[in-house]
Amino acid sequence: MPRSILIPAMSQPSPSDQPQPKIRKRRRKRRRSRALAQIRSFQKADWKRALGGLKQSVPGLGVSLAFHVVVLFTLTWIVFQSSEQTIAPLELGWSTIVESDAQEPAETPEIVQPIVIPSISMNKNSEASQSTVQTPAEAPTTPKNQQTKPSLNLVDVSNSLRLRKQKRGEADGTGQGAKKGTGREAIQDGLRWIVKQQETDGRWRLNGDYADAGTIETDTGATALALLALLGDGQTHIDGDYQTEVRKGLEWLRQTQRANGDFFDIEEQGREAHFYSHAQATIAYCEALALTEDESLRGPAEKGVQFLIDSQNQLLGGWKYRPLNDDGIGDLSVTGWALMALHSARMANINVDLNTFALAERFLDSVQERPSTPAFYKYRPDFPVNGPQRLSMTAEGLLCRQWLGWPKDHLPMQVGAQFLNNQQNTPEWKPNRRNVYAWYYTAQTLHNLGDKNWEQWFQHTLPLIVKGQTSGGRDKGSWHPLRPLGAPHERSREAGRLYLTVMCVLILETPYRHAPLYE
């Protein structure tokens, strides 16, 4: 019989204590149902809260979306407009700030190498002086309503100074010349005041010993300006009422001139007055030579002209405050005076390489406001258009174009002339509106055209200038630089009473200072 296996007794639940299988299933089902119901309840509440929040947020989201769309559109428009036109730094034509010795780092446009043209004598009787040469710069693209760009064709200057040698009784252009209160009397009073300011050694000073002198230091510039006003009236060292004063001024410039031809009286390089002053002194010598045919003046005049030629950017064609290398950027304000000096050199029968004028025309192409807008000009090729400078730069650019052969009826010339004489640019002797620098170029440009634009402009401007002249006291005949304070680009605050007086006299002399180019 098998041996019994003894197993320890264990406590076992009674059948009644154990849940039955069906009961357990029902309990699990109820628990799942309750859990699912709770989950659905939570989800439904979350959706209600989410939808409610979304409904409340819709107006705000719409406003935010609209705001951001407007901001994005505005920024896009600003970026587009800034690529077209922004405000440029002020023209600093008469400041004494010294430039760095390094050339300016501004980018330069890619331009083909200039055409090399043999040296040609600008003799008054030389047919070569009227030869036509195509400019080396590419002609700008023009709209259909604009004419093809004219070729380089230097104007005839053989009789440009003839009116100075004649009786100057109609300086105001109205036939009333010698009567009281007209331009002629104002010119005479202005010249008398200018002569009184001359130093004993023959020089004039912008910051001299007289009321409201300027702060700019350049005796070359002051002397040259004074001589231009005297020569503009036909006063020379051989003929006229101020022979001694003109002779002493010319002699002082001769003694100041350096071996390289530079007339500037300060050795420090980079002063902004440098090439203004040198160009003005060169003009004075060339005009004196052309008016008198005194060959003793030819040497200094030719050296002054050659220094200008040597200082031109030989790739881009402009002039600036120092002799320029190929990477130096010129400006139209300085370039205009340099071109006027070379234009005056032709009057004195001084040889100028025609390539110098071709390069200058290339520079003028680069300072058009846009390649397709040759009627309007800006200060520098690498600067954006500057509204306050538009009048002076356009007048100066168009005058340069006239010297280089643009016809009178060339459409951009006509468009530019209308701009110079429109209502917005009408001269006013008021604070921040007087701008004799711009009027000086406007007068010459319109006078060359000789149409109704010139007549309207001068008949309006002459009485303004005459009325602004000091009528009594030690400063009788001069103009006050601060009453009113002119536009910033006029520069009378810095250049002072002598500068403003000379500029006003030069404007009044316009009818006979140069004969109209298109006669």
UniProtKB/TrEMBL annotation:
Residues 11-21 have a biased composition (Low complexity). Keywords: Membrane, Transmembrane, Transmembrane helix. InterPro entries: SQ_cyclase_C, Terpenoid_cyclase/PrenylTrfase. It comes from the Bacteria. The keyword Transmembrane applies. Residues 182-266 form the Squalene cyclase C-terminal domain. SUPFAM superfamilies: Terpenoid cyclases/Protein prenyltransferases. The chain crosses the membrane at residues 58-80. This is Squalene cyclase C-terminal domain-containing protein.
